[in-house]
Amino acid sequence: VEAVTLFEVVSMGKQAMQSVVVDWVEAYKQDRNVALLDLINFFIQCSGCQGMVTAEMFQSLYKKDVMQKMTETFDKDNEDYPLIRTGPYWKKFKANFCEFIAVLVQQCQCSILYDNYLMDTIISLLTGLADSMVRAFRHTSTLAAMKLLTAVGSVHLNLEVNKHNAQRLYEVEKRRLSGKRTSYRLDQLERKMKEYEHKLLEIKNMMNAIFKGTFLNRYRDVIPEIRATCIEEIGSWIKTYPDAFLNDSYLKYVGWMLHDKQAEVRLKCLLGLQGIYSRKELVSRMDLFTNRFKDRIVSMPLDKDHEVAVQAMKLLMLMSQNCEDVLSAEDCEMLYQFVYTTHRPLAVAAGEFLYKRLLSHEGDKEVQPKGGGKFGASTDQLKRLIHFFLESELHKHVAYLVDSLWDWAGKFLKDWECMTTLLLKNTEEAGEALSDAQESALIEIILAAVREAAEGHPPVGRGAAKKILSVKEKKIQLEDCTKITEHFSKVLPQLLAKYSTDAQKVANLLQIPQYYDLDVCSTGHLEKHLDALLREIKDIVAKHSDMSVLEASSRTYYVLCREGIAIYSQVDCARTQMIDELMKQLNQLLDCFWQKEGGFCTDAGEISRMHTTLRRVAAFHNAHDLTTWNLYDKTLRFLVFETEHGSLPVLV
């Protein structure tokens, strides 16, 4: 096999790799020095070096002299080499390079792996290259050495399984032949077990040589990609071969590198730890590591790198689930607050943490809390959420809170019936009714959940531009809009009637109709509820002078009064009737306000009524065409008088 052929095989992909490795193994059995020379030059070429190790150099020079010769032939000004080249071709090359090492060990495990020459030479070569001053040699050989240890570890696992099976067969055979002194079968199994033990010892020596010769020197390398490679692989070893690697002698390296200045390295630490903490059987052996490095991990959601922060939160979620009492109440309170961050992936990860720690009833889903009735579980979850929202004292960010929980708690956040039932409960029902602050919080949560369901994308300020919904997401969005319309068409008039005197609650409730599906509103069984809604809005306009309430009322008329839909005439009639009454009231006040002598009324009560009426008119003028009512002529006199005399009351 020519040296260039191995390099070309890796470049071509996996299809030809198996057969070429088999051919190489056969060539090694014929002449191991020639075959090894091909393999050495393969590693040299993969490093981007144009030099070639000749047979004479291989046989006569010491390892360091070979390294020195290769370093001299390397173009030091050229910092480009295969592993750091960009593009799909070189990304595939790196994956194939790792695959080649795995296939090579796999093909050798039944024969030449234990000849005390092949692995010694490869490990010696890679260790030497990993100590080179040339970055390309260090990076390529470190990756190769780490993948070599991974592949050898896989052989170790298979040997342990085979040894265990042989041990069991030996015990069975021994009991079966208890009366006889010797047995060929027993002797055969005994020899097999000794062979496995010998091979296991050799494999352990190989793993130790690679770990001490390469990992210990390179996990603190000046190049972050090399450090990341080491940490990624040790995380894999600890998870895959826990009997050999899951102890503090190896875990400490992952813990130390959590403080690395490069985000890429910190990220590999966290991903490796996720693989370990996700398995309960491994977590019980992590106590010392957890105690030592927990505080560092808890601080990492504050990392300046977004992806590191997200993965730290996911790791903390796994630790919370699988390590009893590892996180203190103070730790959890701090982590909950990340649901309000603007970076959505971190907020969603924090939402999972909040939902599973504080809100959900995992493990006791069938148990209904006492007194909860039909909506027991959902009611309990809602009350916990309301309590958290009020305790966090970040009341302007309810949309962020709901969005963070949406992927985990979407089911109960869309339980409109439960939410509105809770709001409509009588205060006499002890233990069930909410306080005023809780009611305000729940209405804000309802509004945020309705918006998220109807619009199908995160709130403003969180995430990029509006995402394009998939067919499935669009279907869910339309179904949610239909449910919102059908439910709130019936319930909203009752809620407005109950809270008609509370400006804040009414202003929030009146924003819900803008998310209605107006085609659903037009169905016959909802018409009577539309009449009730229009009556309530009219009463609210008559009661309130707060601009947020008036503008919300005006916008509701605007949303419902869209030409071309079936309910247009019904809403337009109600709107016209209400504006007529407003104008009639304004005319009466104007007649009283302007006195015959060219002055105006100075009565405080009259001025206050004029102020309130003008605010109502202004709110509707902002959203509706009031040309029919000749508003310009009615208000022009104010402007003229102010220009000429400048003494109109401030309220007007």
Automatic annotation (TrEMBL):
Locations listed in the record: Nucleus; Chromosome; Chromosome, Centromere
Indicate the principal place this protein occupies in or around the cell.
Answer: nucleus
* Coiled coil feature spans: 179-206
User: InterPro entries per the record?
Assistant: ARM-type_fold, Cohesin_Scc3/SA, HEAT_SCC3-SA, SCD, STAG
Keyword Cell division part of the UniProt annotation: yes
A single GO CC term for this protein reads: chromosome, centromeric region
Show the GO MF annotations.
chromatin binding
- Which part of the chain is the SCD domain? 215-300
Q: What top-level branch of life does the organism fall under?
A: Eukaryota
**Which family does the entry's similarity section mention?**
Belongs to the SCC3 family.
Subunit arrangement? Answer: Part of the cohesin complex which is composed of a heterodimer between a SMC1 protein (SMC1A or SMC1B) and SMC3, which are attached via their hinge domain, and RAD21 which link them at their heads, and one STAG protein.
Instruction: Describe its function.
Output: Component of cohesin complex, a complex required for the cohesion of sister chromatids after DNA replication. The cohesin complex apparently forms a large proteinaceous ring within which sister chromatids can be trapped. At anaphase, the complex is cleaved and dissociates from chromatin, allowing sister chromatids to segregate.
Q: What is this protein called?
A: Cohesin subunit SA
